[in-house]
Design brief:
Layout lengths: L42 E4 L12 H17 L3 H15 L2 H9 L3 H8 L14 H7 L3 E5 L4 H11 L7 E3 L5 E2 L2 E2 L5 H11 L6 E5 L2 H9 L3 E5 L19 E3 L9 H6 L2
Length: 265
């Protein structure tokens, strides 16, 4: 593991500030409370990248390159070292930003803003008519992403989906007792369920990453694998995983009777 001294730099001059243990942003409340007690309304939690849009069209390349560039400047690494460390922290913690904050004192919010500061519009591609399809899907829809909120909003705007979701739960909101806990953290998912105030069996996670679905099942949620061939690490899981209720190749397939397999509605 690389442990290097962080150059003394200030934000706006190419470097990152020290980590704020309390978090630099207030936790954003979901835009409306949970459904009426006993309503049985399904709550859909949608992942963003490689679920609502196809990241193989250069977005992941842009993010990975920007992350490595930021790490090279802040930790005085060469490209190969930055790439290796970026992937190692992503594999170990579910988000590179967690490793940088824990081991190097780099504020996750600063790092994520620096590495997601680019125009997403020409890079975003999704299935046709996605907004209309989501509108026809019965139940509440909330975005659940390990990406920063500013990036998530830019992507949703480019997709024409800002109005499709009643709430957005991003990495900015995934702090427990001062530490970042992102997907696939079981503790984070329990915290989200507590905020939603609905039984776990009414909640469905739609995600392209099997590890995230496995954690969702551990807390009692139902699960949909939004299969994408480029999602890292999924290949090591063979066959149909017991914690996946339904597999789809695109979100629109949930409208072809598949949502009834999950929600019963």
């Amino acid at each position: 593991m690389v442990h290097t001294r962080i150059p003394a730099r200030v934000r706006g001059a190419g470097g990152l500030g020290p980590a704020d243990k309390r978090g630099t942003r207030a936790r954003r409340r979901l835009s409306r409370p949970a459904g009426r007690p006993g309503s049985g309304e399904t709550v859909w939690l949608f992942d963003l990248d490689n679920t609502l849009h196809d990241c193989s069209h250069h977005i992941f390349q842009a993010i990975d390159s920007a992350m490595s560039d930021t790490m090279m400047r802040s930790l005085t690494l060469d490209r190969a070292e930055a790439d290796t460390l970026r992937f190692e922290y992503w594999r170990r913690y579910g988000a590179t930003a967690i490793g940088l904050e824990r081991h190097h004192g780099i504020a996750a919010t600063d790092f994520l803003e620096a590495s997601h500061d680019f125009d997403v519009t020409p890079l975003v591609h999704s299935e046709t008519g996605l907004a209309q399809k989501l509108a026809r899907l019965p139940g509440r829809k909330i975005l659940l992403t390990n990406a920063p909120e500013s990036y998530a909003r830019k992507v949703l705007h480019a997709l024409g989906l800002l109005q499709a979701f009643e709430g957005l739960w991003s990495i900015d909101h995934m702090r427990l007792q001062g530490r970042l806990k992102t997907k696939p953290s079981v503790a984070m998912m329990r915290q989200l369920l507590a905020r939603l105030r609905v039984p776990a069996h009414q909640v469905v996670l739609v995600d392209d990453t099997l590890a995230n679905l496995r954690s969702a099942r551990q807390v009692g949620m139902r699960t949909v694998l939004s299969h994408h061939p480029t999602t890292p690490h999924n290949a090591r899981f063979h066959g149909r995983s017991h914690y996946v209720d339904v597999r789809v190749n695109r979100v629109g397939q949930l409208l072809v009777g598949r949502h009834r397999e999950i929600s019963g509605s």
